[in-house]
Structure formats: structure tokens, C-alpha cells
Design a protein that fits this description.
heterodimer; A: 3-stranded antiparallel β-sheet; 21% helix; globular; B: mainly alpha; elongated
């Protein structure tokens, strides 16, 4: 498949997919692009925002509320953890515990710790732990065979 | 098919236990007989009955290692539990069967200490394993990020 990137001086960014038919490979690319562009509805106080899923560092569910953590803000969303996990899987969000998702693209480093768990250090230097239960899935997402 | 797999798993498990037990057996025999070098006046010998007791004790230690510390699940509490159990087996067998009856008392204490130190080396194996896993994880993470960026 030929990939062409054209740089433009002004105007809106645009993605054009040219194909003879929308086969499974092209479908995957299309859904990846759509998911990456689908913004997350979040709120802070009474204000609502649209957030790029790429900007999410991690997501946490506390007392039936879902909080989205970015580099420097904590926002609330009405979406459930399960929905976010399914919707933004291709963006890099993965489950690390019963109530947490992490964005693989914002992880600075990983550390294997006792009881088959993994310590995650984010670009913001916050630390999270991948529970033993989800460690296998986490490794497999990184292409490791456990 | 499942029965064959279970049998194979069991065979491989016992194979590992025997291998581990053999390593401890060599250490036991060496530290039991090395007293002859420390005090050349005292000829050290290992009779077949004591040798058999060594084999049983070492097999139990190896079995404990296989059951308590499986390869994919090393953790601090597991190492502690196995170390404690192994020391109990060593001291229990040694005192119960009077392995060091013809030796001075301090020598049995040295023997226990050496064996305890060898168990502590298990911690080192644990630490190295975590370090190696950490490297593998970070390499995989960087690869994932590169692919996603590209």
C-alpha cells in the first residue's frame, strides 16, 4: 500500500483514503482513524469539553464516577470504564486494574515487581500498578508472550 | 490428550524437583565432608544411611521449591515461606538423625548458616529475574510506541 503525506501551508487537516474496495485492512485503518478522532466528552464543574483521547494519561472509576486524568487536569466523564476501554482501545487505552485504564502512549517506564505485577510510571511521574490479574493481558498488548 | 499433557507437566515438574534436589545434595555432602579439611585430625566419612537421609531432605527442599515458588510466580512471601520450610527440614533432619554427633557443636551451626546463606541467594535470583523482566517490558513498550507513532 502506498502512503503519501502532503504538507499544506494553511487550511484544515484532511485524511483521504483511496482504495478499490473497503477490505478488512482498510476497515481497520478507517476505524483506527475514526476512534483516534472521536473526542471524549468530559466536564470540569459545570463546563463540558471535548477531549482528544490521545491526551488522556489514565482513567479511573471511583464511587460510580469516572475520572479522566490528563497531563495537568482531572476531568469527569459520564461514560463508563468499559465503554471507554472498548471505544478507545486502538488509541492505546488498556485496563490495568478493576477500576483503572492507562494510555500506553503516555507511559514513561515500566518495572516488574513482586507477585507478577507491573509498576507503571507515567510521563507526569505518577505511578500506577498493573494488577496480577491484568498483567498477562497488558504484556500481550505489548507483544510479549508471557 | 489432556491426560497426556497433565502427565507431561507432572514429569517435567518432578524432573525440575530432582535437578534442584541434586544441587542441594551436592552442597550438603560438600559441607558435611569439608570438616575433614578444616581439622585433618578428624577423618570425615558419609555412611550410606546418612546419605539416604540427605537425599530425602534435599528432595523435600526441591519439592518445596517447585510447589511454593513456581517459575512464573516468584514473590517475597513465597521465598520467605520456602526458606523457612527448607531450614526446618535441614535442622529437623540434622538434629533428628544426629548428623553431626561426632562433630563439635559449632560445626553444625556453621553448616546451618551456610545452608541459610544459600537460601538467601534465592533472593538474588528473584531480584535478577525482576530486572530482566523490567528490561523486556520497557523494550516492548518502546517498540509499541514507535509503531504507534509511525
Amino acid at each position: 500500500m502506498k502512503i503519501t503525506v502532503e504538507y499544506i501551508a494553511s487550511g484544515e487537516d484532511e485524511i483521504v483514503l483511496k482504495c478499490r474496495q473497503l477490505d478488512s485492512k482498510m476497515q481497520r485503518i478507517l476505524s483506527f482513524i475514526e476512534e483516534s478522532m472521536e473526542k471524549m466528552v468530559v466536564q470540569k464543574g459545570y463546563e463540558k469539553f471535548l477531549l482528544q483521547p490521545d491526551d488522556v494519561f489514565y482513567v479511573e472509576a471511583v464511587d460510580n464516577k469516572t475520572f479522566v486524568y490528563t497531563k495537568d487536569a482531572v476531568l469527569e466523564t459520564q461514560d463508563t470504564l468499559n465503554n471507554i476501554e472498548n471505544k478507545y482501545y486502538n488509541v492505546g487505552l488498556i485496563r490495568i486494574g478493576k477500576s483503572q485504564l492507562v494510555n500506553l502512549n503516555h507511559i514513561k517506564k515500566l518495572k516488574s515487581i513482586s507477585n507478577s505485577r507491573i509498576e507503571v510510571t507515567l510521563e507526569s511521574d505518577e505511578r500506577l500498578v498493573v494488577s496480577r490479574h491484568y498483567a498477562r493481558m497488558f504484556k500481550s498488548r505489548l507483544g510479549l508472550d508471557n | 490428550m489432556r491426560k497426556i499433557k497433565k502427565w507431561k507437566d507432572f514429569y517435567l515438574f518432578i524432573y525440575d524437583v530432582k535437578t534442584t534436589g541434586c544441587i542441594y545434595f551436592v552442597a550438603f555432602v560438600f559441607f558435611y565432608l569439608v570438616y575433614g579439611f578444616i581439622d585433618p585430625g578428624n577423618a570425615t566419612t558419609l555412611d550410606s544411611w546418612t546419605c539416604m537421609q540427605f537425599i530425602i531432605a534435599c528432595f523435600l527442599i526441591g519439592l518445596g521449591q517447585g510447589l511454593i515458588i513456581p517459575k512464573n510466580d516468584i514473590s517475597v512471601p513465597r521465598i520467605l515461606l520456602w526458606g523457612l520450610l527448607s531450614m526446618l527440614i535441614t535442622v529437623g533432619f540434622s538434629e533428628g538423625f544426629r548428623w553431626f554427633n561426632s562433630y563439635p557443636r559449632w560445626y553444625s551451626l556453621i553448616f546451618y548458616s551456610v545452608i541459610a546463606i544459600s537460601f538467601i541467594f534465592m533472593w538474588l535470583a528473584f531480584y535478577w529475574r525482576l530486572q530482566r523482566e523490567t528490561k523486556v517490558l520497557n523494550d516492548a513498550l518502546n517498540k509499541f510506541k514507535e509503531i504507534n507513532k509511525g
